[in-house]
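Researcher: We're teaching a course module on how sequence relates to structure. For the next exercise, students receive a sequence and then see the predicted structure as tokens, so they can try to spot secondary structure elements on their own. Here is the exercise chain.
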Amino acid sequence: MQEDILIIETEIIPNGMGGWLLRCHNTETGEERICQSIEEYNAYLNECAFNTAKSDFKVEWLESPKATPAMIADVRKRLMDHYKKLEEMG
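Model: And here is the predicted structure for the students to work with:
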């Protein structure tokens, strides 16, 4: 039985200028979106959660073979900083 969970698959990809992008795939709608920042990514996740009839959602991070360890570390740090700021806002 399939769980009532929306899955957003996310992969870190190089942007061609030394930075990174997040390629996201909504498994319910098939939509693919490229996010250029953590804030844009967070807004996309909120949009997906708001528009689904499913009871919950989760992010599955895909292997990112084209991303460098520095890109992965930067995304991780920015995510942690973003969520810490959200927690502080209450």
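Model: If you want an answer key for the exercise: The mean pLDDT is 93. The chain has one domain: 5-89.
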